[in-house]
Design brief:
The structure is a single chain. This protein has 4 domains: 215 residues, Sandwich (Immunoglobulin-like); 95 residues, Orthogonal Bundle (Cytochrome Bc1 Complex, Chain D, domain 2), CATH 1.10.760; 72 residues, Cytochrome c-like domain (Cytochrome Bc1 Complex, Chain D, domain 2, Orthogonal Bundle); 47 residues, SH3 type barrels (Roll). Helices cover 15% and strands 23% of the residues. It contains 8 helices and 19 strands. The strands form 3 sheets. Strands 1, 2, 3, 4, 5, 6, 7, 8, 9, 10, 11 and 12 form a 12-stranded mixed β-sheet that branches. A 5-stranded antiparallel β-sheet has the order 18-17-16-15-19, with no helix packed on it. Strands 13-14 form a two-stranded antiparallel ribbon. Helix 2 crosses helix 4, helix 3 packs across helix 4 and helix 5 packs across helix 8. The protein starts with 17 loop residues before the first strand and ends in an 8-residue tail after the last helix.
């Protein structure tokens, strides 16, 4: 029975926004925006922060490669439907800049919208690549135009790390698309305009990969033998909800007592993650998980056939110990995840294990001689030549003062053992020879078609006009070298990692 406890999306997604009542069926409740939504592809407004993500995208035709995650959200108000995609991507590429061009050859996302569930084949498409080029089609029984369509008043924006024609870079991590679609575009097909509380539409969200990792994924599954995104019979259901995102977190009260239902987390202190993970409890929780939960999730917290990874680098809506405990112990209403019969002590151990998978280095409880590790960092490692820690050291590499609160232990180990194949953004080495014959060597902080800002080895910022440069030599390889696990004895390497695991601004 416990194997159902961590069933699809339960611990990792907001079950209040997604219900999976029958195999293959997905549903999302679109809440009203509680604050203004600015279309800037930053997604930092309170309305987006509180909006629930759609359930994880599915790779219907997967054969090989990396399943990169997409987080999509939707909101609405009387004027617009708002849609956002946050796409994890190690290889971002896009080249199409022409309106209605073939953006599907690039990293791109798309939404297919059918406002009338009774005529689901009347649908509209909005497809945008990672550099913000859009293609639109109107496939309805009333549209008599050509192969493309010009919707009214659509606003959209894409953000990423890169240039106007985006080529892959070593620092690629993610790209975002945000758009506002005026609801009046759907007036011919929708039952009400604007929608009313409880109105249902059908739609699907998709993502296509670029040149390197050409994956195709969708929010609503496309049943075999279907091989096309244009399959309205496979669209998922969305419900417009009058409740705003600001009201979303309010507790559900028992109608009779006006209190939280017995056994739910409302009566307990909401305990956030604090302090190191208990290694003994986490190890025991791992055993319980591997015996009970791998029917859906993968072994050791990896991605499974029917549920996502427990410890992938992603954003979680259940972030506290009590929220995780409640999800496992009491189940999540609106999903197939039931309450667990496991003793509370076992559930707590599973919570400790989930914490250990997600924990940053500061919370992972990594052991070693921190003082000796500091000596290695300052001395034999010569790390202060490039890196700064709490105001001491160089500035040609990233500041490590808060690295333990930003990275996992595994990330720190990997940087020390494998190095970095490409320099981090803002730290790309360059050597510039001026027409005077002088050389400026350092790292690029910013550049455009006419100027360069180079932080030199003299730790001064040099403003250089490209017209003044005789030669510019870029260094594509990161100066951060690996192999420290081989250069140092095992105990010293452990101590160096332990020192880095203590570098955090907490308490400062």
């Amino acid at each position: 029975m416990l194997s159902w406890v961590l069933l699809i999306h339960g611990v990792l997604s907001d079950a209040g926004a997604m219900a999976q009542s029958t195999p293959g069926a997905v549903e999302y409740r679109i809440q009203r925006a509680s604050s203004e939504v600015v279309i800037d592809a930053r997604l930092d407004e309170p309305a987006w922060q509180k909006a629930a993500p759609a359930s994880d995208f599915l790779f219907n035709w997967f054969s090989a490669g990396e399943k990169e995650r997409t987080e999509a959200k939707m909101l609405w108000d009387d004027d617009n439907l708002y849609v956002s995609w946050r796409c994890e991507d190690r290889h971002i590429s896009a080249y199409e800049t022409k309106r209605h061009g073939p953006v599907s050859k690039d990293d791109c996302v798309e939404i297919f919208i059918s406002p009338n569930p009774q005529k689901v084949r009347n649908y509209y498409t909005f497809e945008i690549n990672s550099i913000g080029t859009m293609l639109n089609r109107c496939r309805t029984d009333w549209f008599t135009g050509g192969p493309t369509w010009e919707p009214e008043g659509v606003r959209h924006r894409a953000t990423f790390s890169g240039l106007a024609k985006k080529d892959e870079q070593g620092d690629d991590r993610e790209w975002i698309v945000e758009m506002a679609i005026p609801l009046k575009n759907f007036a011919r097909d929708a039952a009400h305009m604007p929608p009313r509380d409880g109105d249902e539409w059908r739609l699907n969200l998709m993502r296509t990969g670029g040149r390197t990792n050409m994956q195709q994924s969708t929010w609503s599954p496309i049943a075999p033998p279907g091989r096309s995104f244009h399959s309205p019979e496979n669209f998922g259901k969305v419900v417009f909800v009058a409740q705003t995102t600001a009201q979303q977190g309010r507790p559900v009260l028992d109608p009779a007592t006006q209190q939280r239902p017995e056994g739910k987390q409302g009566g307990r202190r909401r305990r956030v993650f604090s302090g190191p993970v208990n290694a003994e409890d986490a190890a025991a929780g791992r055993e319980i998980y591997n015996k009970s939960c791998t029917m859906c999730h993968g072994l050791n917290g990896a991605e499974g056939d029917r549920a996502p990874a427990l410890g992938a680098q992603r954003r979680y809506l259940r972030r506290t110990e009590d929220e995780l405990f409640d999800a496992i112990k009491n189940g999540i209403r609106g999903t197939l995840m039931p309450a667990s019969p496991a003793p509370d002590a076992d559930v707590r151990k599973m919570v400790a294990y989930i914490r250990s998978l997600r924990a940053t280095a500061a919370d992972a409880g990594f052991t070693g001689d921190v003082a000796k590790g500091e000596g290695l960092f300052m001395g034999k490692g010569n790390c202060l030549k490039c890196h700064m820690v709490k105001g001491r050291g160089g500035i040609l590499g990233p500041d490590l003062t808060n690295i333990a609160a930003e990275r996992r232990v595994e990330d720190l180990r990997q940087a020390l053992t494998e190095g970095k194949p490409h320099p981090s953004e803002g730290f790309k080495p360059v050597a510039v020879q001026l027409k005077t014959g002088a050389w400026v060597r350092g790292v690029i902080k910013n550049e455009d078609s006419f100027t360069m800002q180079v932080l030199g080895e003299d730790e001064r910022l040099h403003m250089i006009l490209r017209a003044e440069a005789r030669k510019i030599e870029y260094v594509e390889k990161s100066p951060m070298v690996g192999g420290w696990d081989k250069r140092l004895p095992a105990d010293e390497f452990r101590d160096l990692v332990a020192f880095l695991c203590k570098q955090t601004r907490r308490g400062q």
